[in-house]
Design brief:
Rossmann fold, 7-stranded mixed sheet, 3-stranded antiparallel sheet, 12 helices, globular, binds S-adenosylmethionine
């Protein structure tokens, strides 16, 4: 397998950290494993030739490909399910009672193949079923991986993934799609806007603030400085009283971000 030299490794690690926040400094094997075949397949014999190409003006498409390869996208329906219990039992009733404008705005930041966003959209749909109030429910789901975003938009999943959902959701929100696969029903798919968005973007372009942001298992790949900068942007993008969910293996330094601790991995802007 093609090996990456120290210089090439530093060059790539620095680039990825600066542009995408992801810290690959301990991931030499991962880089060689995930990029090695592409590089030889494209006829290069050294990482530096490939990197020269990717970083050149002509390499824009290959950059997308490289980012797709270097991101870690593991996710599943109902992941860290106690978050969804809290969301349904505490967050949604709070929003329902406090939002006089009937405008609900959520963001799944680092959504990977969409399971997190769909889980939320289904819980919201179920929660508001029977309500006669004119609720607008906007769900934005973003990632830097185009492969994952395409999969998310398709909304087609293996039966083994769908089985992680409650039985009632399996029947209400998924349709058989053949070959043991299931597709999320149109009424839920149309509620989510999947978009390519880099969380390293300095100024977030969103016109309105979000009531809830899920950014779970994304910042684990960031260093403290990058994470703190992102948390400040999240803080400024959340409504007063709004909630931030992070991965259950993650934590944040409250003092540097402004968020108030609710319980492990759940924070609030109050
Ligand atoms: C492990 S997945 C987490 C998926 C889901 N949130 C969950 O907890 O199951 C992490 C996702 O973060 C995305 N990601 C990493 N760096 C990012 C960045 N700078 N901007 C946007 N997304 C990023 C990756 O592409 C990947 O799909």
């Amino acid at each position: 397998m093609i090996k990456i030299s120290d210089n090439e490794f530093r060059r790539l690690v620095t680039f990825v950290k600066k542009n995408y926040g992801i810290n690959l400094s301990q991931k030499r094997n991962l880089i060689e494993g995930r990029l090695g075949n592409i590089i030889t397949g494209k006829g290069y014999s050294e990482f530096s030739d490939y990197l020269d190409y990717v970083f050149s003006e002509k390499g824009t498409d290959e950059m997308v490909n490289m980012v797709n390869k270097l991101t870690t996208n593991h996710t599943f329906f109902m992941r860290e399910s106690s978050h969804f219990d809290f969301f349904r039992q505490t967050v949604l009733p709070y929003l329902k009672n406090s939002k006089n404008n009937y405008d609900l705005r959520l963001w799944s930041a680092g959504c990977s193949s969409g399971e997190e966003a769909y889980t939320l959209a289904m819980i919201i749909d179920d929660f508001f079923s029977g309500s006669t109030e004119p609720w607008e429910k906007t769900m934005l789901a973003t990632d830097i991986s185009t492969i994952m975003l395409n999969k998310a938009e398709d909304g087609i999943y293996e039966q083994s993934s769908v089985l992680k959902m409650p039985k009632s959701f399996q029947t209400k929100y998924f349709q058989p799609y053949g070959n043991g696969q299931f597709k999320v029903v149109q009424s839920i798919r149309q509620k989510i806007v999947f978009k390519k968005f880099n969380l390293m973007t300095e100024i977030f372009p969103f016109k309105k603030k979000f009531d809830v942001i899920f950014c779970r298992n994304v910042m684990i790949y960031f260093d403290k400085e990058t994470k703190d900068a992102l948390l400040k942007k999240f803080f400024n993008s959340i409504e007063d009283g709004g909630y931030l969910f992070i991965g259950q293996a993650e934590s944040i330094t409250r003092s540097s971000t402004g968020f108030t601790y609710v319980m492990p991995s759940i924070y609030r802007k109050v």
